[in-house]
Amino acid sequence: MAGAIADLYLHEDQFFTGWCVLVLRRHATELFELTQDERHALVDQAALVARALKAAFRARKINYELLGNQLPHIHWHLIPRRSDDPQPLEPVWRVEHEPKRMAGDELRKAIEGIQTVLQALGGRC
Questions:
Q1: Residues 6+ apart with CB under 8 A from 111
Q2: What is the pLDDT of residue 13?
Q3: Share of residues in the chain with pLDDT > 90 (%)
């Protein structure tokens, strides 16, 4: 995406289909360490990705997680929550489940779906 400040990755656990991680390109651990322009760019990029994930995965809500306790680097978990969510009122961290890995065509289709919607919205990551 033009002016992208972070890179987007599909999370390895796809139990919540479309779960992505947006990772800041430069190292910083806190939002206040970013310049005002960097903060604005990061929030704008996160909002664009969230919009794309909502459309690509028919989410009813997007969860945003910016923690950094385990990995002290700014990275945002963007998690589509769907109407068929097994525990819609719980944070994903509390939902016991077997991790779901995507491979092959399923993985490619998920990535292409996100890219297609992002391009339609005028951005890419």
A1: 10
A2: 96
A3: 90
Task: Measure CA 122 to chain center.
Answer: 17
Q: Residues near 35 by Cβ (< 8 Å), separated by ≥ 6?
A: none
Burial class of residue 3, CB neighbours in 10 A (0-12, 13-18, 19+): exposed
Q: Give domain limits for the chain.
A: 6-120
CATH number of 6-120: 3.30.428.10
pTM exceeding the 0.85 threshold for the entire prediction: yes
User: What tokens appear for 33 in the block?
Assistant: 């360490």
The pLDDT-based confidence of 2 (bands split at 50, 70, 90) is: low
The length of the chain in residues reads 125
